[in-house]
């Protein structure tokens, strides 16, 4: 594979793992494997700078804010940390620090802290009162999870002590203590619920609850503070002084933290935490070293995604040998086909392991994994079992190669692997394995916005076979709802009224609700504007779709394959037969001589008289282009009431901001 294609594949794969880790709380690979892929991409980009992509993960931190939450900008970017995998890496980091500071002959003082395996958040206090809290998001923008954070008992609603600062941005990690994790899982098993996979997933998932809030889980969480953003907080001479101030304000800090006089003490500290990790009250997958003097931190500065003055020192995973007895395929809630190795049971780090995810076909081929092989396994992050390598010298003549099936093992729909993606998927809209996820997506606010159709009700409808295919949701009546848990007469009436309202929608919302791979709100709007109605879209080829500005060949292939599947087409047509409607609009044709040719617009807020869809159509008819996010390539931001973060970003980038009157002047 040439370098350009390998870069594209690595960008796609790293983005997928970023989403799995930061948004879906179900990582598939270890941090070490992720870092290895990231280093490979960095090396390729260094060797081939002309092929560096604007969306490269080497320029990003985490993942974009998830749909369903309001996004806000961090007061100061929340950066990631580079990793040290062993003592040599730690010494190399120390050497870089001392060389940059010009203190090669003198030791640098560090603060050692346990690396917390949880979810990073920012807490903002104004005049000592807790105002709001954000997830890490992509490092610049985070999801506003204030409502959920108010249930976390270790987050003080007011800072202790006299004279609190006017504004304080406090950084830290939300973790689920090991003891609380055990209690929650015991309770879940008794209720018949699936236990949480690990404390990190349980903690991160609790923060992203939109409906049916699990308050008991939120109360069990613990916030551990480790930083104050200097931009908005009081000045401190050392990192240790920061930790002391956080404790004085009533916040929990890691009691295991310590000042280390140089790299040798830092290495000894890391070894001590590693030796006692099983006795720690929280999950830890390493230690963090931070240069103690803040003036040194400022002098060292940051690179694009991480500070030069801190590093995460990772713990080595424990490994064992065993045999792959079979490979089975699981279909996930998003349609991803995951090959799972069925192992001869073996103990790894005190836990008996009998299954290991093989992730995808590329992973199987890269490691040349075969049924019958003897393999080395480890628990990624000490949680997810994975196959590290095959012991080829122990391979028997009967070892069999494995290929993912061409048809979904659950619904028999044809499986799809799009160009540039590593994951093979079932694209079946009515696949039973995906039904709950697809139904929740259909009901989400950005899609058909079915108020009252939350996670627990979706579970009941599917598990009691009231909804067996996604279109069945519009056949639900009062009789079918009778007897469901927490579904009284009033609740049933409200849900039925919401279902009736949801039937009157727009084509773009309908397309988004179908959950077509790569079709988000912006792409759905572009396609809807281009065709105006569903029927011409159903007849469109991938070539025609790819010609739409902002769509491209990968998305076009995904849309064409989706509607070419007979099961999907049947569901789409049935949804329309059951009453889902949208206004038919004239297909948007750009005027090549229009006044807005070559100009890119972003719309935000509520305009005085124009609906956003009308504004979009008029801009596009005049030759302009409308996108969903502000960038340096944006020519104008059209802003109405309650514009949100897009206005702030436009102002930062000095993008001209127009009101409705100024837009009318341009159009005329």
What report would you give on this structure?
- With 668 residues, the protein is an alpha+beta fold.
- It is 35% helix and 19% strand.
- The strands form 6 sheets. The chain has a 5-stranded mixed beta sheet. Strands 14-13-12-15-16 form a 5-stranded antiparallel beta sheet, with no helix packed on it. Strands 5-4-7-8 form a 4-stranded antiparallel beta sheet.
- Strand 17 and strand 18 (425-426) form a beta hairpin.
- The longest helix has 20 residues, at 3-22.
- The two termini are 51 Å apart.
- The relative contact order is 0.07.
SSE topology:
Blueprint: H1 3-22, H2 31-47, E1 71-73, E2 83-84, H3 87-101, E3 109-116, E4 119-126, E5 129-135, E6 141-143, H4 146-149, E7 167-175, H5 178-191, H6 199-207, H7 215-220, E8 222-228, H8 239-248, E9 258-261, H9 263-275, E10 284-291, H10 294-300, E11 310-314, E12 319-331, E13 337-348, E14 351-357, H11 361-367, E15 374-380, E16 384-390, E17 415-416, E18 425-426, H12 435-443, H13 455-463, H14 478-481, H15 489-502, H16 507-513, H17 521-531, H18 534-538, H19 542-546, H20 552-564, H21 566-577, E19 600-604, H22 612-621, E20 625-627, E21 636-639, H23 645-652, E22 657-658, H24 660-667
Parallel strand pairs: 2-11, 19-20, 19-21, 21-22
Antiparallel strand pairs: 1-6, 3-9, 3-10, 4-5, 4-7, 7-8, 10-11, 12-13, 12-15, 13-14, 15-16, 17-18
Give unreliable regions as ranges.
none
% residues in beta strands: 15-25%
Instruction: Assign the CATH class of the largest domain.
Output: Alpha Beta
Radius of gyration: 27 Å
Order of strands across the main sheet: 2-11-10-3-9
């Amino acid at each position: 594979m040439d370098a350009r294609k390998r870069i594209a594949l690595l960008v796609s794969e790293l983005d997928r793992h970023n989403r799995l880790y930061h948004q879906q709380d179900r990582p598939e690979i270890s941090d070490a494997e992720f870092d290895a892929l990231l280093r490979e991409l960095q090396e390729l980009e260094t060797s081939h700078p002309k092929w560096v992509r604007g969306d490269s993960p080497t320029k990003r931190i985490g993942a974009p804010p998830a749909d369903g939450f309001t996004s806000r900008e961090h007061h100061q970017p929340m950066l990631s940390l580079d990793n040290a995998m062993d003592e040599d890496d730690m010494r190399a980091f120390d050497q870089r620090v001392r060389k940059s500071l010009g203190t090669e002959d003198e030791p640098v003082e560090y603060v050692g802290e346990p690396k917390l395996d949880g979810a990073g958040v920012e807490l903002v206090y104004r005049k000592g009162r807790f105002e709001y809290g954000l997830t890490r998001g992509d490092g610049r923008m985070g999801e506003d999870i204030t409502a959920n954070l108010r249930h976390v008992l270790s987050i003080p609603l007011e800072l202790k002590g006299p004279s609190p600062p006017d504004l304080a941005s406090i950084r830290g990690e939300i973790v689920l203590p090991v003891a609380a994790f055990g209690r929650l899982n015991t309770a879940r098993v008794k209720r018949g619920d699936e236990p949480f996979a690990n404390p990190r997933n349980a903690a991160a998932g609790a923060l992203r609850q939109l409906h049916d809030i699990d308050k008991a889980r939120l109360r069990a969480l613990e916030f551990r503070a480790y930083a104050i953003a200097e931009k908005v907080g009081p000045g401190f001479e050392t990192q240790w002084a920061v930790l002391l101030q956080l404790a004085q304000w009533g916040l929990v800090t890691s009691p295991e933290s310590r000042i280390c006089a140089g790299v040798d003490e830092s290495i000894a500290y890391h070894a001590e935490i590693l030796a006692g990790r099983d006795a720690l009250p929280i999950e830890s997958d390493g230690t963090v070293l931070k240069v103690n003097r803040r003036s040194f931190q400022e002098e060292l500065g940051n690179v694009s995604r991480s500070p030069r003055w801190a590093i995460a020192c990772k713990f080595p995973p424990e490994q064992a040998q065993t045999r792959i007895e079979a490979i089975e395929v699981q279909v996930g809630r998003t349609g991803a086909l995951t090959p799972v190795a069925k192992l001869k049971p073996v103990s790894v780090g005190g836990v008996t392991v009998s299954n290991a995810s093989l992730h995808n076909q590329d992973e199987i081929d890269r490691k040349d994994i075969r049924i019958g092989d003897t393999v080395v396994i480890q628990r990624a992050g000490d949680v997810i079992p994975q196959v590290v390598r095959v012991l080829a010298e122990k391979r028997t003549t009967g070892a069999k190669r494995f290929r993912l099936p061409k048809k979904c093992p659950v619904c028999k729909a044809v499986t799809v692997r799009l160009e540039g993606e590593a994951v093979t998927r079932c694209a079946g809209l009515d696949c039973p394995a995906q039904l709950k996820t697809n139904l929740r997506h259909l009901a989400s606010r950005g899609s058909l916005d079915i108020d009252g159709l939350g996670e627990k009700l979706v579970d009941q409808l599917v598990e009691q076979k009231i909804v067996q295919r996604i279109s069945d949701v519009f056949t639900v009546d009062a009789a079918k709802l009778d007897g469901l848990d927490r579904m009284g007469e009033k609740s049933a009436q409200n849900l039925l009224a919401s279902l009736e309202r949801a039937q009157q929608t727009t084509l773009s919302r309908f397309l988004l609700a179908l959950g077509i791979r790569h079709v988000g709100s912006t792409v759905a709007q572009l396609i809807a504007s281009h065709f105006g109605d569903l029927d011409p879209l159903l007849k469109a080829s991938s070539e025609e779709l790819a010609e739409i500005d902002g769509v491209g060949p990968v998305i076009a292939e995904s849309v064409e394959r989706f509607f070419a599947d007979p099961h999907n087409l049947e569901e789409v047509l049935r949804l329309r037969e059951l009453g889902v409607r949208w206004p038919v609009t004239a297909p948007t044709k750009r005027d090549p001589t229009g006044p807005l040719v070559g100009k890119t617009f972003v719309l935000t807020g509520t305009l005085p008289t124009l609906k956003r869809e009308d504004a979009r159509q008029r801009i596009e008819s005049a030759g302009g282009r409308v996108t969903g996010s502000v960038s340096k390539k944006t020519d104008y931001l059209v802003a109405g009431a309650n514009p949100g973060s897009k206005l702030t970003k436009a102002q930062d980038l000095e993008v001209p901001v127009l009101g409705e009157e100024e837009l009318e002047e341009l159009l005329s």
